[in-house]
Amino acid sequence: MYLPKHFAVDDQDALLQLMRERPLATLVLNGPDGPDANHIPLHARQTDGQLRLCGHVARANPLWRRLDGQTMALAIFHGDDAYVTPSWYPAKAEHGKVVPTWNYAVVHAHGRLRAVEDPAWLRGLLESLTREHEAEFEPPWRMADAPAYYLDRMMQAIVGIELTVARLEGKFKLSQNQDEASRGGVRRGLSASADPRAQWLAARMAERT
């Protein structure tokens, strides 16, 4: 990823926050016919000082059969994005030497990817995911709400995957390369937008610029 220093984010807490807010990752590895991408929710876990991204795929998905524990992969987590109009820059009225751009936030997690067929590991992951994502619902759905024989059948149809993260890269393109007046104009413009993606970026700008 092209990563100019003014857009680079090294704050792991900020990167983890985005990964947890937007868990649907684009998981990329080299396949027999070139790069292969799958879109998989990944759960970030810190164990023994090591960040691991855990998820599962359908057993019918050939991805897991290509994993030998040493397979390198890239998981891309996407924050929100929005168009930035030159009209938000004060310089437009001063000299007109401004152009449009696009602001966004992404996290790239590089590491080795392995398949996990341990039923206890997989059940623990599913229970953790269910607790996390059902917390906002009342009443929350629990795995115990489904018949045991049905859950067993569903679990037999999936395989766990785990990416052990060796390197994290964050790119938050939030107009940091602009002067203070321009950044303020962009932030106000995004805040006033009816698009929640723009408002999300405005909030990130308020935190970081």
TrEMBL record:
* Classification via Pfam families: FMN_bind_2
Classify the source by domain of life.
Bacteria
Which Gene3D superfamilies does the entry link to? Electron Transport, Fmn-binding Protein, Chain A
* Source organism of this protein record: Chromobacterium sphagni
- UniProt xrefs under InterPro entries: Split_barrel_FMN-bd (IPR012349), TR_PAI2-type (IPR007396)
Protein's name in the database: Transcriptional regulator
> What is the phylogenetic placement of the source species in the record?
Bacteria, Pseudomonadati, Pseudomonadota, Betaproteobacteria, Neisseriales
